[in-house]
Structures are given as structure tokens and as C-alpha cells.
Amino acid sequence: LGLLNRSYETDAAFDPSGQKTQWERFAHLVTSLNAHASPGTQYKVLYLARHGEAYHNVAQSYYGVDCWECYWSQQQGNGTVTWADAELTPKGVAQVTAANLFWKNALTSTKPPMPQSFYVSPMARCLNTANTTWGDIPGEKGHTFSPTVKELLREPLNACTCGWRHSKSWIHELYPSYVLEQGFSEEDNLWKAGFIVESSTGLLARVKTLLDDVFASDSNTFISFTTHGVVINPLLQIIGHPNPAFNVTAGQIIPVLIKAQENTALENVSATAPPSAAKTCLPCSSGKVT
Question: pTM value?
Fold first, then answer.
């Protein structure tokens, strides 16, 4: 979470003796920007976290991209491991445990603001990542960790079974403190076996809807998203990040400051492609496709 070592216009009044950390001074700047923002303008800091390594990540590396996409990704697993709604691997658990230790240390040393709101993808690997990272860190007034589970943060809807989610009841049983957003369906009605439901333009539109929703409904400034690398990159593109292809590796996080201005004009929404059948092939291994 390194910030550039720089001064801010609010430093003189907030930290005249130079005792505050870089993050404390930055947080005060953002709070001041919101306090003096014109109507319809707001600033938020999003902590964009990618889930730890999961079994579909390992399988894709093992089989190779071509063989993975046309055959193995569309299976439930390979008889040894399962990647339908993939769980974290032991390495993934270690990665997010390290993230937990990082935050515990940072909150008392460099002092980045604790997220005021938490949102998480409904995929098992993200639910676990969020819980392991934040579950034992006391939040505001010591409240129980209760992130909101949002479909808009989920894996892209393609033929990979890693993009299918478990039921609402399954999520509630494992994570009873999690808040399932209004309208969250019992079964996964979005993922379709064998089909690419969501095009790249469709994913961009979905991520923009996510941002519009959060900025319109959540008055908090410091917000955590636990999601997927393939969701983070379109988000970076939408907000005009200088490096939208930035590779957030498994279990890592990137903070971004967003200035949003309300736009009441009608927008031209790019047409999204209809669902299409996924490419298939015969069983293959080690990248050999027939």
C-alpha cells in the first residue's frame, strides 16, 4: 500500500509538526476533499483485493491456456481436485493469512484507514479470502465482520465452472454474518454451462454498474472490494488508471482514489454481445489440443 512520499495541501493545518504518517495525511486530504466537494462530486478510496490462489489457477497453469479453455475449464475437476466454484489452495490460504497479518501491522504502523464498508464476490475463494483477511480484525465499534455479497463482483460469466457459484443457502451456512444483497437468488441463475454469457464489453458494463451502485448507495469513503483479477482490470480501465493492465497477483491488493461526478445526462450504453457457445475440444493434457 505504498504511497508516494509527498506533501498535501492540507498538511499545514493537519500535521504542522510532521508527526503523522503518509497514510494519515492522505486520509485527511481525502476527507477534506469530500467536505469541500461541490454537489454531485465525491471521492472514495477503494481497496481492490484479489482472492488468494485457487484450484482453477493451478489447473490452468498445469494444462496450458488452450487445453484449459476448450476442455478442462468446462469440467467440474479432474478427479484429483475440483475447481467448480474453486476453493483456495493451501498456498492461497497462506497468501490471505499473510494479508491478514499485513493489515494488522499496517493499521498500527503506517495507519491506512480501516475500510468502512466491505463488498465481496459470491465465489467461494473470495468469501474465504475476505473472511481470513478481515474476520478477526475489529471493525468500527467492534462490529462483527459483515461484508455485503454482490453478484456484480463475481467472476466473468464464461464456460469455466470456476465461474459458477454455490447456492445462497450454502453461503449463508458457511458465512452467517455475511449480508446477501437484496435480490440475491437461491441458485446461480446467471452462469450457463457451455456458454460464454458475458463478453468483454458486457463485463465492462457490469463493472461500471457496480461502481455506479456503490457510489450512489454507500456514503462511506474507504471501501474494500474482494474480487477477481479479471474484474479489477476492467475497473481500472473505467476509472482511467494509468496502468489498467496492472497485474494484481493472487492475495494482493491495490488501493485507488476515485473522483466521481454525478452525470444526469443519458449515456450511450455499448451493446453487449449475446451468449455464445464456448469452444470445445477432445480431452487433452499439457497443452495438447485435438
Answer: 0.95
- Exactly one of 51, 53, 56, 69 is catalytic; name it: 51
CATH code where residue 237 lies: 3.40.50.1240
**DSSP assignment letter at 54:** B
Which of 53, 155, 198, 228 is catalytic? The answer is 155
- Split into its structural domains, the chain has a count of 1
Say if residues 122 and 156 touch (Cβ distance below 8 Å). Answer: no
Nearest to 229 by CA among 148, 129, 159, 145: 129
**Cell 455475511 -> residue:** 178
Per DSSP, 82 falls in state B
The neighbour count for residue 136, using CB atoms within 10 Å, is 10
In the residue annotation, 51 being an active-site residue is answered as: yes
* 271, part of any domain: no
Q: How far is CA 65 from CA 56, 68, 85, 92, 256, in A?
A: 12, 5, 19, 21, 30
Is 155 annotated as catalytic? yes
Angle (deg, nearest 10), helices 90-106 and 124-134: 40
Determine which helix (DSSP H) or strand (DSSP E) holds 195, and give its type and residue range: strand 195-196
Given this model, what pLDDT does residue 141 score? 59
pLDDT given for residue 285 in this prediction: 81
